[in-house]
Amino acid sequence: MKNISLLLSALFLITGIAGCSNGNDSDASSDDGRIDVAVTTTFLDDMVEIIDGNADAFDTELIIPAGEDPHVYQPKASNLKTIVDSDLLFYQGLNFEGRMADVLTDGIPVAEDFDSSVLETQEEGETDPHFWFNIELYKQAMTIVENELSAAAPEHEEAFQSNLDNYFDELDALDAYVRERISEIPAESRILITPHDAFGYLSTAYDLDVHAPQGFSTESEVSNNMISRTADIIMEQNIKAIFVETTTNPDQMKRLEEIVSSRGGTVNVVGSSKDALYSDSLGEAGEPGDTYIGMYRHNIDTIVENLK
């Protein structure tokens, strides 16, 4: 955002890098003529890469690294410079990047204009930001991104639309795969327990019952009462497995396992480095979840193999 707000200018002064954001600076655009795009999350990074394809019209900079928790990520000075130097800035919105809100005001929030009727909410009115587990909502977000990229590089609009259409075919195949795999789990065993409430859209789309001791954000409090209530569900429903997430502390699930054990029950904690669920971030390069489709297939395969 070449004309970023006064707030960012103040932040640069505070961090000692004032002056780096000059729109005429040689670092402010790619030397090869590509358009500079900043994205907050790995999901958005994957979207831009898919849409851009072989056109290679954009130089994309990821702000929150793979494996980091966007709910609690604190922007660094280098991130602020990336934001200022960008021609386009995409962020997810719905308070997903909660601690970055003040520095994203000039960006494009891909989820803010979704129809409120399709968004998951809690009784307190808080909106669930984890829309990417609803494949149809993910398509809507990608369409928003494609429209903005086409406006920035209209000479590639036809290629971008073709890339998007082809990818939507892959997403339709993914949806069919998910439905087929979940059908392998007996109806009474389709109960997913994770550290925080990130899988509500998955629940609605594929008829899973989801529970978590923590709310939509990993910043929310985890009370002893919520831990105990979750343990009650495990015991009452005779749940075989509970799942760790790649961006959360595994101790929470281990604590649940200990409580269940103390009550005479057993439950398996699924969460080694290779089978933890991806929730708030895609995986690092080379991991099975380093793309959106790879992430989704990994999660579903892991859930099905441990609950069926």
Automatic annotation (TrEMBL):
<dbReference type="InterPro" id="IPR006129">
    <property type="entry name" value="AdhesinB"/>
</dbReference>
<dbReference type="InterPro" id="IPR050492">
    <property type="entry name" value="Bact_metal-bind_prot9"/>
</dbReference>
<dbReference type="GO" id="GO:0007155">
    <property type="term" value="P:cell adhesion"/>
</dbReference>
<keyword id="KW-0732">Signal</keyword>
<dbReference type="InterPro" id="IPR006128">
    <property type="entry name" value="Lipoprotein_PsaA-like"/>
</dbReference>
<dbReference type="GO" id="GO:0030001">
    <property type="term" value="P:metal ion transport"/>
</dbReference>
<dbReference type="GO" id="GO:0030313">
    <property type="term" value="C:cell envelope"/>
</dbReference>
<keyword id="KW-0813">Transport</keyword>
<comment type="similarity">
    <text>Belongs to the bacterial solute-binding protein 9 family.</text>
</comment>
<feature type="signal peptide">
    <location>
        <begin position="1"/>
        <end position="20"/>
    </location>
</feature>
<protein>
    <submittedName>
        <fullName>Manganese/zinc/iron transport system substrate-binding protein</fullName>
    </submittedName>
</protein>
<keyword id="KW-0479">Metal-binding</keyword>
<dbReference type="Pfam" id="PF01297">
    <property type="entry name" value="ZnuA"/>
</dbReference>
<dbReference type="GO" id="GO:0046872">
    <property type="term" value="F:metal ion binding"/>
</dbReference>
<dbReference type="InterPro" id="IPR006127">
    <property type="entry name" value="ZnuA-like"/>
</dbReference>
